[in-house]
């Protein structure tokens, strides 16, 4: 039985009142803060880590996946481009580009600040409580955009949520990304997907990885980076862990770190071009693919993506990515073959209703925590789509403040007209 400590109440300073408070500065939070600031709102974005960018930077991500046209994603991609291929990310360059764009737009950025609680007035989020080196502080606001990935704000505010797949709540595995230096790029092999393979003298490389690497690691994903002799590896793998539990996060982190050495030994021994490779960087934070998905006015369904649906109340457009369901029980892809079965060439849209949480006002969902099924989430969670989700929420928050109208009561045609003026259209 847990014992409890009763925390005495105390006065905490209200350090600011802003119009739009963005919690979390990942791809989704970036898009939201940038857009609301560009629309003239007083914006503050708080972020627990020491850099903006979320998984894109702190997760040392390799590339923007999927297809996303228009909006501030395209602007960010072009400005942060570091080599011939605009899809390849240099996380170090991206950190500064994102920060510069936010400051140029007039947003305030406060790093090293952890969201720890909501301030509620009835069912309305009126602000948040933060923890930092400056202690426990309060920030008041007109609207909060929850861009924490895990939906920490929405969870504390009492929005109902689901985790993982229907049958057993199993969530996608976690990964610590790492970079390898000393790779002979002229001879090196790259593997962009779980289905990419090659026949080595010792056998099929993906089968060999399953045999030789410590389970649940066991697949080979290697991407060229924009830096000479450097490759990004997406090969550590931990299953059965919940990213909203700090002790499970610690366990997963340790498990991934132990796998890195074994993976390097494997690559040196078997894979051409990697004979003298070494680890030159690893993500400071473990990459969490999936946690809470909240209840909103509409839950995006996998069929909406498979059929490339055009919703009347679209706010995100021109999105396309297959169902990237990593195996919940081991290495590689989910055995249901969703990836292979995905044939849709057309883009899908995401409706405003997926961002409007049930039961709570003054709050917008954003990024990988919006309302969708486990399978739909495996497509819309990719970073380009999340950046443009953020843009849409920046517009919605700004209009809501300007017109003193709750987001769910706004005229969708007006939202879409503003989005069109910002290069987001069907
Ligand atoms: C291992 C891995 C590989 C991936 N590979 C790709 C890929 O190749 N291409 C691609 O496009 N996508 C990829 N994805 C998916 C993509 O990175 C994420 O789904 C996407 O970053 C989600 O964006 P987000 O802004 O919603 O959340 P995040 O990127 O997770 O950002 C959330 C931010 O909120 C902050 N935060 C969280 N809680 C708090 C709190 N309580 N207080 C303050 N701040 C907080 C976090 O520090 C973080 O900066 C990958 C994901 C993982 C995990």
TrEMBL record:
List the InterPro entries: FAD/NAD-bd_sf, HdrA-like
Q: Which SUPFAM superfamilies match?
A: FAD/NAD(P)-binding domain
Source taxon at top rank? Bacteria
KW Transferase (keyword) present:
no
What's one GO MF term for it?
metal ion binding
Keyword annotations for this protein? 4Fe-4S, Iron, Iron-sulfur, Metal-binding, Oxidoreductase
Q: Which Pfam families match?
A: FAD_oxidored (PF12831)
- What is the name listed in the Swiss-Prot or TrEMBL entry for this protein? FAD dependent oxidoreductase
Organism (species): Muricomes intestini
